[in-house]
Amino acid sequence: MASAKASAKDIKQLARETLGIEKLRPGQLQAVEAVLGGRDTLAVMSTGYGKSAIYQLSGELLDGPTIVVSPLIALQRDQVEAMEEATPGEAAELNSTVSETKRRELMESLRRGEREFVLLAPEQLAKEEVLEELREAKPSLLVVDEAHCISEWGHDFRPDYLRLGAFAAELGNPTLLALTATASPPVRREIAERLGMEDPAVIVRGFDRPNLHLEVRRFTEEHGKERALVEAVREAAKPGIVYIATRQASEDLAEALRDAGVAAEAYHAGLGAKRRGELQDAFMDDAIVTMVATTAFGMGIDKPNVRFVFHAGLSDAVDSYYQEVGRAGRDGEPARACVFYRPEDQAIRRFFAGRTPEEREEFEKSRLEMMRSYAEYTGCRRDFVLSYFGEEHEPPCGNCDNCDAGLVEPEDDAERPFEIGATVTHSEWGPGEVQRYDDDRVTVLFESVGYRTLALDLVEEKHLLEPA
Predict the structure, then answer these.
(1) ω into residue 304 within 30 of 0, thus cis?
(2) Element housing 142 (H / E)
(3) Is the pLDDT confidence value at 428 over 80?
(4) d(Cα 186, Cα 245) in Å, to the nearest integer?
(5) Any idea what DSSP says for residue 297?
(6) In whole angstroms, what is the distance from residue 44 CA to residue 206 CA?
(7) How many CB atoms are located within 10 Å of the residue 208 CB?
(8) Reduced to 3 states, what is the DSSP secondary structure of residue 244?
(9) Where are the alpha helices (H) located in 356-452, listed in sequence order?
(10) Measured distance CA(23)–CA(29) in Å, rounded
(11) Which of 307, 271, 272 minimizes the C-alpha distance to 289?
(12) Cβ(286)–Cβ(237) under 8 Å?
């Protein structure tokens, strides 16, 4: 594994001179230092936090080229364009749109040290000639962007990512840097295991987005929910995104919004690639002010002025929900994240969860149950989300519906039998990790059955949990 000596002062100076970053955010410097020390690193940082700066700074300071695995051609292109503005001539993309001649020229420039960064999809590494040429270039750093794609517990699972650990070995074991905007503890563990990371530095930062107002509106009747959603979109500051479960529902809601005078379009995987590209470009240019989308509209949406993300029902997990709402307010200005929730709507998500292989079905259902718990929670919603991702937070946050309503009191210093993140054992469910406390309950993530919430008095009375 490659390593380089650079002081914190050197890294900060490079950030100012090449990227125009006057002050690195918490965790960015720590991640760069870990990579420069030759340590495999997993950086879990929220959407818009600046994960790409970590590999750009590391790559500039390490000898040898940097390979960046990125899942979408559009995402690769955006990242290359951004890097070309900062350091012209140092970055290039390698994908199915690149000609054979251009590929050979790129590989030669990598070997000569004329280019630092090459961005490619994992499918390219499956080509023997590409792998051989990259190996000859002696890369010092292999970056896995959108790293949750490697996890079968992640919400954007990509089978091609499963081979990246083997590819890393064939490339000569460069230092590994995995980046993702959302990864709860089981996803983090699987990323590290599947990539073959050795004692990785795991850095979790930036999940607190205080400019996002978190809210859930509850309904008992479907038509009432849709009317309220259309009205909320019509009145909201724009542009914005509405996430919805199915293709047909996205078409129907987009039509209802247009009837209400909103420039809205539906986006889903059933549309052709050209049409999806046109829609995304129109949204980025504010020609479409509301996109009604399934989760197909996701990675690569780097639009700073999104003012709202509404959900027409529950996401499949808190992980995916928080990544989706993270697309709002990236300019730091106030933005809204609201779930329009009807308990009966869970039937759709349970159907999707029930389609997973049997050994994962219980776990998937528990993730959905955590999302339901968020929807029905009467405490601080920001505290709920941050504790899910392992970040400390003291409620009330003052910017969620429950805090607005005065339902949240500052936490007392009640004695807790285990620390957050502690490993415990249950006689039936085996090992688990303490996730959060809610008054008189504790939520534990068990490897065998997923999330379970237990009454603290029973835990203590019957010794349900023991230190591992």
Answers:
(1) no
(2) strand 141-144
(3) yes
(4) 24
(5) S
(6) 8
(7) 16
(8) coil
(9) 358-376, 381-388, 401-404
(10) 10
(11) 307
(12) no
CA angle, corner 255, sides to 250 and 258, nearest 5? 125
DSSP 8-state symbol, 400: B
Treating both helix axes as pointing N-terminal to C-terminal, what angle do 358-376 and 381-388 enclose, rounded to 10 degrees? 150
- As beta bridge partners, residue 176 has 142
- How many beta carbons lie within 10 A of that of residue 250, not counting itself? 27
d(CA 468, CA 459): 15
User: Distance between the two ends of the chain, CA-based, in angstroms?
Assistant: 33
Query: In this predicted model, what pLDDT tens digit does every residue of 21-36 receive, in sequence order?
Result: 999 988 999 999 999 9
- 8-state DSSP, 444: E
332: Cβ contacts below 8 Å, ≥ 6 apart: 211
| Cα 364 → chain centroid | 17
Q: Identify the CA nearest to 320 among candidates 154, 443, 141, 169.
A: 154
Tokens of 359: 């050994």
* β-strands 335-341, 465-467 pairing: unpaired
Measured distance CA(196)–CA(131) in Å, rounded: 18
What is the per-residue pLDDT across 163-182, written as a single tens digit (0 to 9) for each? 899 999 999 999 999 999 87
Using the Cα atoms of residue 56, residue 57, residue 60 and residue 64 in order, give the sign of their dihedral.
negative
- Residue 88: CB atoms within 10 A of its CB come to 8
Q: Which amino acid is at 215?
A: E
Q: What one-character-per-residue DSSP string does 182-230 give?
A: ---HHHHHHHHHHHT-SS-EEEEE----TTEEEEEEE-SSHHHHHHHHH
Q: Name the band, by pLDDT with cuts 50, 70 and 90, for residue 347.
A: low
- The kind and range of the H/E element at 44 are strand 41-45
| Beta strands in 312-376, from DSSP E residues, in sequence order | 335-341
Q: Of the candidates 437, 436, 441, which has an alpha carbon nearest to the alpha carbon of residue 457? A: 441
Polymer length of the chain:
468
